[in-house]
Amino acid sequence: MKSRSSVHLADFGLRYVVSFMFSVMVIYGLYVHIHGDYSPGGGFQGGVIVASAVVLYAMTFGDSVTRGVLPCLLTVGAIGLLIYISTGLTSTFLGESFLSYVFRVYDTVTEQKLGVFLVELGVGLTVCSSVASMYFDFASWKNDIN
Q: Transmembrane ranges (predicted)?
């Protein structure tokens, strides 16, 4: 049987490592998202990496600590969906196909890059929100059963 001090020390070590890894995972998720149009990656992968950082933090420090971010996550998901849809509808209102990335402001290459970035931003925000919300939903089942 482990002594009380060794359990406290292991808990402290885990919390220290996770608090460091949280920031590293969020920065890496943003890196994958931003460089997604130049290399493999993008909004979906970056969103999942950031959501996994939120889930890891919630599993380590407890759901009660992170449950306060749930309304914020739902808002972030709605904003991501709004960015995605408004990027596509902007092209449609200008007489082009949905998500053709035509804004008639810049040259074609700049419009394409801007359009891809906005779509990937919307996807990343929505995926991050959805994956983290799924974790909180599954974690709340534990409390409903007891």
A: 12-31, 43-62, 69-94, 114-136
Cα–Cα distance between 73 and 125 in angstroms, integer? 9
For residues 126 and 132, what is the distance between their CA atoms, to the nearest angstrom? 10
If you count them, how many residues does the chain have? 146
Q: Give the separation between CA 31 and CA 61, rounded to whole angstroms.
A: 25
What is the distance between the alpha carbons of residues 76 and 15, in angstroms, rounded to a whole number?
26
Give the tens place of pLDDT for each residue, 6-23: 445 567 788 888 889 999
pTM above 0.90, yes or no: no
Q: How far apart are CA 84 and CA 56, in angstroms?
A: 27
Interval 79-117: pLDDT, tens: 999 999 999 898 888 888 888 877 777 677 788 888 888
